[in-house]
From TrEMBL:
It is found in: Mitochondrion inner membrane. It comes from Crypturellus soui. This is Mitochondrial coenzyme A transporter SLC25A42. GO terms for biological process: transmembrane transport. The gene is Slc25a42. Mitochondrial carrier mediating the transport of coenzyme A (CoA) in mitochondria in exchange for intramitochondrial (deoxy)adenine nucleotides and adenosine 3',5'-diphosphate. Solcar repeats lie at residues 34-124, 136-221, 231-319. Keywords: Membrane, Mitochondrion, Mitochondrion inner membrane, Repeat, Transmembrane, Transmembrane helix, Transport.
Length: 331
């Protein structure tokens, strides 16, 4: 009799617990899906806002990187202004945003993938190193950023190639993004769409790694010293600007090499490898004036873009979490 009662009690408890567990698992899966979706949406918006804001400077930088200037010409703020002004006079105001549609086609998925991947890599590395729910230590913080940038670059590279071509060519040459793909495929082969891929990946590793590392580190230092859990929007912009300055300065020579290899087909050059491209640039234009061409202008464009990008992502994440929380409360 006693055994029968105990068995019934155990069975009752099992029936009572099992539905709770089975109901809890889908809830966790739903939360994870919402988190990934929020990261994708926030990242996409962050990339679009940041790149549109600096599109004229971005096009000017690509034009500098893509052409071989004489040795005495050192592109800086004055030369950048003259180039922008000449482009405006010859092609009109909106030509300063030429190639921005291709940029959006690339940047929106690139930024969405990069920011979302960064959140996921942080979580994975946090679990691996035992920092779940806490800020990562410096090395995993750098690795998370590098992996996020590499993942995004690998998945969206042909779109970056198209953007570079549209930026350095007259509008008569390519009418739209699809036209660029068709002409490159027919005239130069499909492999051309991945020309400059290796220097891109080699450049993304320090760029994304240092950018995310710097931004996350500055936020952590701010929280430790100020006692505030979150920095203000102006502080986020400043932290992002510092991240962009450090990341882009470290990877800039490889960025120049990437642009030269991408635009070689329309600029009358043939670059077969990273080292040969570097050697030719240094031989024709010098080390600083070649591999660091346009860097001074990038110190303006880069920090603005990265600052806007990181700030937009963080604020969108906060906004979406608040909206979801208020929706759950109302239910």
């Amino acid at each position: 009799m006693g055994n029968g009662v105990r068995a019934a009690q155990v069975d009752f408890k099992r029936q009572d617990v099992e539905p709770v567990v089975s109901a809890h698992l889908p809830a966790e899966g739903t939360q994870e899906k919402k988190k990934v979706l929020n990261s994708l949406m926030s990242g996409a918006l962050a990339g679009a806002v940041a790149k549109t804001a600096v599109a004229p400077l971005d096009r000017t930088k690509i034009m500098f990187q893509g052409k071989s200037c004489c040795r005495l010409e050192q592109p800086g703020f004055a030369e950048a202004y003259r180039l922008i002004y000449r482009t405006y006079l010859n092609e009109g105001f909106w030509s300063l945003w030429r190639g921005n549609s291709a940029t959006m086609v690339r940047v929106v998925p690139y930024a969405a993938i990069q920011f979302c991947a960064h959140e996921e890599y942080k979580q994975l590395l946090g679990s691996y190193y035992g920092f779940q729910g806490k800020a990562l230590t410096p090395f995993p913080r750098f690795i998370a950023g590098s992996l996020a940038g590499t993942t995004a670059a690998m998945l969206t590279y042909p779109l970056d190639m198209v953007r570079a071509r549209m930026a350095v060519t007259p509008k008569e040459m390519y009418s739209n993004i699809v036209h660029v793909f068709i002409r490159i495929s027919r005239e130069e082969g499909l492999k051309t769409l991945y020309r400059g891929f290796t220097p891109t990946i080699l450049g993304v590793i320090p760029y994304a790694g240092l950018s995310f590392f710097t931004y996350e580190t500055l936020k952590k230092l701010h929280a430790d010293h100020s006692g505030k859990s979150q920095p203000s929007p102006p502080e986020r912009l400043l932290f992002g600007a510092c991240a962009g300055l450090i990341g882009q300065s470290a990877s800039y020579p490889l960025d120049v090499v990437r642009r030269r290899m991408q635009t070689a087909g329309v600029m009358g050059h043939t670059y077969s490898s990273i080292l040969l491209t570097m050697q030719e640039i240094i031989r024709e234009e010098g080390l600083i004036r070649g591999l660091y061409k346009g860097l001074s202008m990038n110190w303006v464009k880069g920090p603005i873009a990265v600052g806007i990008s990181f700030t937009t992502f963080d604020l969108m994440q906060i906004l979406l979490r608040k909206l979801q929380h208020s929706t759950n409360v109302q239910r």
